[in-house]
Amino acid sequence: MSKNTGRIVRWAVTVAIALAVGIPMVNARQNPVAPLQPADTVQAPAQKPAPVVIKVSAKKYEYDPATITVEKGKPVRLEITATDRNHGFEIKDLKLKVNLEKGKMQPLEFTPGTVGEFEIKCSDFCGLGHGGMKAKLVVTAPKL
Ligand SMILES: [Cu+2]
User: Measured in angstroms, how far is the CA atom of residue 6 from the centroid of ligand 1?
Assistant: First the structure.
């Protein structure tokens, strides 16, 4: 065995020992942390606030309520039902749009991010008064 071979063997043994000792140490360090993760995951959904539910009806050529008032940052769930025929419900400025099938409740969930007034329009041609079938979404500043 040459001097070099001896050095390489000694180096290989040192690396092997370092790995054998090092890997269990890394595992030991990670394991105590792992059991905490499921608890974190369980807590997260509980913190999500339930949306404010507002029922809206649509018919030729109006929405009821005609003014829907919501609060900035609070999740909202509109439950919209067209009562006389198919209609639509669109808030262009907020990029929200749903088709309403006659008699079938259509949910629309969103969280308003901007204070202001936004026009709601029917997006499904429903007759002579279609162009005037409008309502208003009012987003107020969050209450403290
Ligand atoms: Cu319409």
Answer: 88
| pLDDT surpassing 80 at residue 23 | no
CA of 42 to the centre of ligand 1 (A): 44
What is the CA(92)–ligand 1 centre distance, in A? 15
The Å distance, Cα 61 to ligand 1 centre, comes to 7
The tens digit of pLDDT for each residue in 78-92 reads 999 999 999 999 999
Protein fold of 52-140:
Immunoglobulin-like (2.60.40)
* pLDDT 10s digits, 42-79: 555 567 789 999 999 999 999 999 999 999 999 999 99
Q: What predicted TM-score, i.e. pTM, was given to this entire model?
A: 0.67
Question: For residues 88 and 100, is the Cβ–Cβ distance under 8 A?
Answer: yes
Domain extent listing, the chain: 3-47, 52-140
